[in-house]
């Protein structure tokens, strides 16, 4: 049997809002899966132990109390989840018992991502193209303040997917702002957050037809997964020379280059379906992992050419950044890899349409080794969170 977990958990993706740093007494993994007809046939939420070798052990808990959970996130000592429904909700969950502690409407349709930023819960509503911000205390019923709805506009050239704004991810930055990736508008918007006030600072504009889905930050470089063009785009946080070359609060996002998530651009263009989903940096920041639906691959890029801040006094003396370099691709050991998590020298991949989570070993060079060391049956997996 697994050892009992501690009551309060600071997940590996974020510390408790109370500043706690306790970890589970045994490693664990949380899985979510679509539950509703037309979306999938998953169990909702499940908590599994992680064994000493990094593979997934026995199920510790499961719950169907959250409908269509499409994304999970660390919320201090809580687990945050979104219910991807026409009238969406954001949920606070006890990560050990999986009991629902709070539920609030997102005021938008089909929420698909959630993050906690300085006590505020941010949600991306895909179909309505909005972002919702509400206090964590409000989600728990301790604050009566109304949620704030951030509306977006815009469209792109891929008519069937970009007829309007589609917010897909909310991401806090190390310098205190929040990024909202907009697949429909080919844009990543950046907001300042001060108490209950959110202000649009600037936008990172992507080439038409990119379809920004998920992002990753490496220093002052923004890496963006283009769901619609099959590439990773790189933008650099660049100071506005009109004020001061060292001003870190006055800058713009300068698009640099893109790298296909296949050995060649021709392979991307020839594919009937080629839809990148999640991207994430390796623990040392030297590699970028990406899941691609269609060819059902897990791709590794070398991003060591992205160095320097772009805002330092000696920026002119720094080596010019170079594009990410394709290293390897392996089968995801399933169909439609929607999400993955990295930890325990493994990559855990949620293959949504084949109803399995595949576990891969990371080689000494940090590149996933072909051939899953484990395949766990799980209905319509949507998100993986390690603790």
Automatic annotation (TrEMBL):
InterPro entries: Cycloisomerase_2, Lactonase_7-beta_prop, N2O_reductase_N, WD40/YVTN_repeat-like_dom_sf. SUPFAM superfamilies: Nitrous oxide reductase, N-terminal domain. One of its GO terms (molecular function) is 6-phosphogluconolactonase activity. Belongs to the cycloisomerase 2 family. This is 3-carboxymuconate cyclase. It comes from Arthrobacter glacialis.
